[in-house]
Amino acid sequence: MSKTSIPTTMHNCATCRRWTGTAIPNAFCSWVEIDVHETGKCMGGTYHMCSMYPMQSCSKWEARW
Ligand code: SF4
User: Fold this and answer.
1) H/E/C letters for each residue in 34-45?
2) pLDDT digits (tens, 9 = 90+) for 16-46
3) Any ligand 1 atom below 6 A from CB of 57
4) Domain boundaries, the chain
């Protein structure tokens, strides 16, 4: 387990609406807490149905917050 927080303006899987992993937003939805070793599935992006780490990314990123 390795938790960290990143801004929701970063374009990576953890902040993408297509990602199914765990990302816990703060009260303002400006930061999210993630575990960098926990994967989530990409649903509909470049890596559809693949397990993605939160710090990965692709050109189909879409804002979640
Ligand atoms: S691979 Fe792309 S579309 Fe899929 S979750 Fe990550 S940033 Fe979003």
Assistant:
1) EECCCCEEECCC
2) 999 999 999 999 999 999 999 999 999 999 9
3) yes
4) 3-52
